[in-house]
Amino acid sequence: MPTVIAVTSEKGGVGKSTLAVHLTAAFAGRGLNAALIDEDGRVGSSRRWAQRAEQVGQPLPFPVYEPDDVKPRKLADLDVLVIDTEGRPKRRDQRALAGRADLILVPSGPSPLELEATLDLVDYLHEHGSGRGACRVVLTRVPAVGQGGEAAREDLRDGGVTVCNTLIRQYAAYTRAAEQGGLVRDLPDPRAQAAWGDVLALSRELQ
Ligand SMILES: Nc1ncnc2c1ncn2[C@@H]1O[C@H](COP(=O)(O)OP(=O)(O)O)[C@@H](O)[C@H]1O
Ligand SMILES: [Mg+2]
């Protein structure tokens, strides 16, 4: 069975779908058999992303499933399965997710308010998480200039939170990629390549 990584957060708009799509692409690009389940389905979700990619004739390099069309047979051969969740899921759903996933990946912006919301969720998952799901924060939309990301990472670690070493920096290329249904990997811009380097590094840290 695949390693199951669920991407979830306390708040919407933190970059879950952007990260889920790119992370799955990074796993696939490294030769792993990877797939994504989109449990959101609304505007801006991974499924819509994949549809746009197909429309422009450049399909994503991995399948994106809706929860209803996931058959165990499809999943058995996978190395890694990423789950993209809706913004602001109910606590109950998050607890259920923790039971299904090997890893709960919680993207968070580095600002104090975002970190506060993230800590709330991490505390909740630690208290109520059903054992199987380990929980790790990944800092995202980190300003490419300055040390704010590093500082936030060390603060979280001092507080006993498990944080990914890799910082996903903030680049406009992600928004451009989303609009086109593409990946930053395929944008001819040095900053897009720097963004892709972050995602690759994160993928290596996780699997
Ligand atoms: N690392 C990043 N750098 C710049 N913009 C980002 C980054 N990650 C996400 N975004 C942008 O933030 C917005 C919300 O991202 P999205 O992935 O849809 O969040 P969520 O799935 O958590 O609601 C989108 O406009 C997206 O392009
Ligand atoms: Mg989303």
> Distance N terminus to C terminus?
14 Å
- Strand percentage lies at 5-15%
The helix count comes to 8
Rg result:
16 Å
Tell me, briefly, the overall form: globular
Q: What is the annotated CATH architecture?
A: 3-Layer(aba) Sandwich
- String of helices and strands: EHEHEHEHEHEHHH
The CATH homology group name: P-loop containing nucleotide triphosphate hydrolases
Low-confidence stretches: none
CATH class type = Alpha Beta
- The CATH topology is Rossmann fold
How many runs of DSSP E, i.e. beta strands? 6
The helical percent reads: 40-55%
Please tell me the overall pLDDT: 92
Quickly count the domains: 1
Ligands (ions, cofactors included) = adenosine-5'-diphosphate, magnesium ion
Strand order, sheet with most strands? 3-2-4-1-5-6
Biggest sheet details: 6 strands, parallel
Structural class: alpha/beta
Q: Top keywords for this entry?
A:
207 residues; alpha/beta; Rossmann fold; 6-stranded parallel sheet; 8 helices; globular; binds adenosine-5'-diphosphate; binds magnesium ion
Characterization of the model:
With 207 residues, this protein is α/β, with parallel strands linked by helices. The chain has a single domain, classed as P-loop containing nucleotide triphosphate hydrolases (Rossmann fold), CATH 3.40.50. It is built from 8 helices and 6 strands; from the N terminus they run E-H-E-H-E-H-E-H-E-H-E-H-H-H. Strands 3-2-4-1-5-6 form a 6-stranded parallel β-sheet, sandwiched between helices. Helix 5 links the parallel strand 5 and strand 6. It is globular. It starts with a strand and ends with a helix. The structure holds adenosine-5'-diphosphate and magnesium ion (MG). The site of magnesium ion has 6 residues, from helix 1.
